[in-house]
Amino acid sequence: MEKIEEPTVLFGKSKWIWAADATKKNSNVIMRRTFSFGQNKPPQRAFCRAACDTHYYLFVNGNAVVWNGGLNRSEKHAYYDEFDIASFLTKGDNIIVVFAQYYGNDGRDLVCSPRAGFIFECNDLDIYSDSSFMVYENEAFQTPRSTNCCYAGFNVNYDAAHEGPIQNVYDPAYNITQFKPATVLASYPDDNLGVVTLRPVPLEKFSAQPVIAKPKKTTNQFDGDTYIINLPREMRVTPYMEVAGNGQEVITITTDRTDCMGCFGDEVSTYKAHSVKYTTKPTLNIYEGMLPMVGSVLYFTMPRSVKVVKLGYRELGFNTTPTCAYQADTPELDKLFNKAVNTLYMCMGSTLMDTPERERTMWLGDASVEARALYLVYADAASLVKKVLEDVIEYSENSDILYSCVPGNVPVDIPSHGLIALGDYGIFGTYRNYTTDLEFFRVNYEKLVDYVMQWDMTEHGVALRDGTRRWYDNLYNVDEVLLENALYYNACSFLKELGAEVGNNDYEEDFDDRMSNIAEFIESTWDGLGYTTREDSYDDRANAFIALAGLIPDDRKGAVARLLSATINASPYMEWAVLTALSELGRRDMARTRFNMRYSSAANDEQTTLGEDFNGYGTRCQGYQSAVIFEAIELFGGISVKDGASKIKITPDFTAVKDFRTELQLASGTLDVRYKYSPTKVDIIIDNKTTAKVELEITPEHIGRAADRRTIVLNKGKNKFSV
């Protein structure tokens, strides 16, 4: 087939289409479009674009091409996908089948438009979404059961008796009379769904075919049979089953994370994630769920009268693979590192989620931790960090607030999260350290400054700002005054340095005045043992962020390090700050000791992800636990990356880690670092394949033997040192 010239206007020949009622919530439609090449050979290119509110699954000749298509939209922003279907085409008749869903309910991860819609174009095949697409509203999806999970979508309540004759939906020759010409809703763009832009992150990867499992079976006299599929690790999956039934038997599909506990301050709550209630029809039932479920165990519970033919699942997730190699000096640290990598992967989707189990929400504090880990592990997934930043900037358009929970229906202003995001260790600082995109900061610098200028100064430091919520860590024993002042100092310091980089020094004097005021206030809180505004206690988090602000004189560093070693308040959300502060104070040995103590339970349990709390309650997969990644590489390995990965400093510390190896794919190239320890000699081997300035800093107190204190600029290629 001759290639058709593409129109100059996106979706210029296409229409938004759906079934007759495009406003119905929890609408599930099937669309078919047949076409034929006759005896001609199919083209080598069949480039397609598609968009949907809310999600779609696209098959070509029975082959799954797009799974969970349609990136979660915000109130102002919707996306389209691009993909090529040429490899799935054959001579003769062909068919495109689309399963499309419209949620119609918002969540912390998504804002729905007022009505459904699907739009498609393939200029190479001269196929455009219009009334030539045949559509069927699948009435098997009944009124859903309620759920109290925080993200969009509904539980599945599927009655197979109402699904209609859709078993031959993939056969282009089969004329299904229940399918009617699609209802044309509007031309593109329209007032409801607006302008769409190319999704900035890749389409999700997925299992090409369902993975058929060999489940374990348990029997209960009340519940019937439960078939248990132990997944290789915690995963996002869609369930698959083939069963024979008599009709009206109820099958439930859940995971071990369908029930998820609440978070700090909400410990008594239980949140119900999406699940499936399937009612059989007589004879064979084939069901493939298309609502992602999360867990490490998949449960199919059914009456004993149901005969199982096949049970399984498809895995789906962010389209990336780790580019980081890592090996440490203990099996426990290796195990924790691998759990942290899986935790981070599970929290990567249309945004950097806090957890895939309960909320699927972007919180700026959590995303700051995740971003710092992501650049070390997934070189090709950094576009997700940029998307988070663009979502935050978009939502701040009219208010100058850096919101959490965007995209989503309830943007949340948490001042401490915004300040963490603007520290050198936050998501903005991480983006600056690991990318060369200084233009982003030139464009948005004034907006970031406007945000921090919303805090009022007093004679004794910055006044606390309420926002939507005042939240710091786990709500208990938090020195809020010190924490917010230290965080604010860090944000001012970062923005002052950033202003110099982008050539905007208009606020330098304001930052100096504010930082001087805060430094004087923090100095006044020193009592000889630590910094505190609470007479009865010290807060490890507050003292940690003061250390990260560089406000601790040399003669007090030992005392603060001892305080941080002995005071245990931080949850995993802020534990990284305490460990980083100990490292900055020159006590990475104390940081490693505290790390081993705090993570001892997680290192030895059977979970494949890291959870919300050290004590085991809450979620079992929490994004901020990816901090283990940069703790293992940056803190214990002593690797610092700055200025778009153009400056790298390596400072081995054999009091923190003995044998160590990591290989990193950075914006400036590949860096391979190895340490080998023996009682008589240490070897440091660095293979530098970057364009960065890479420095090795030798300090005798950290090497553990007599050595000259020196800084060595490394050559390209392999560098080896023995001490």
Any overview of this molecule?
24% of the residues lie in helices and 29% in strands. The chain is an alpha+beta fold. The chain has 4 domains: 15-151 and 163-203, Galactose-binding domain-like (Jelly Rolls), CATH 2.60.120.260; 211-317, Galactose-binding domain-like (Jelly Rolls, Sandwich); 325-636, Glycosyltransferase, CATH 1.50.10.10; 637-723, Sandwich (Maltose phosphorylase, domain 3), CATH 2.60.420. Strands 11, 15, 16, 17, 18, 19, 22, 23, 24 and 25 form a 10-stranded mixed sheet that branches. Strand 4 and strand 5 (63-69) form a beta hairpin. Helix 2 (364-377) runs parallel beside helix 4 (415-421), helix 2 crosses helix 14 (627-635) and helix 7 (480-502) runs parallel beside helix 9 (540-548). Residues 1-5 have low confidence and may be disordered.
In short:
The protein is of the alpha+beta class and 723 residues long. Helix content is 24%, strand content 29%.
CATH hierarchy: architecture of the largest domain? Alpha/alpha barrel
Strand content: 25-35%
Main structural class: alpha+beta
- The number of distinct structural domains comes to 4
Number of helices: 15
CATH C-level class of the largest domain is Mainly Alpha
- State the distance separating the first and last CA atoms: 68 Å
Task: Evaluate the radius of gyration.
Answer: 28 Å
Which residues sit in consecutive blocks of at least 5 with pLDDT less than 50?
Answer: 1-5
What is the multimeric organization of the chains shown? single chain
- The CATH topology of the largest domain comes to Glycosyltransferase
- Main β-sheet description: 10 strands, mixed
Can you count the beta strands? Answer: 36
Which whole number gives the mean pLDDT?
95
Which percent range fits the helix content?
10-25%
Q: What is the approximate shape?
A: globular
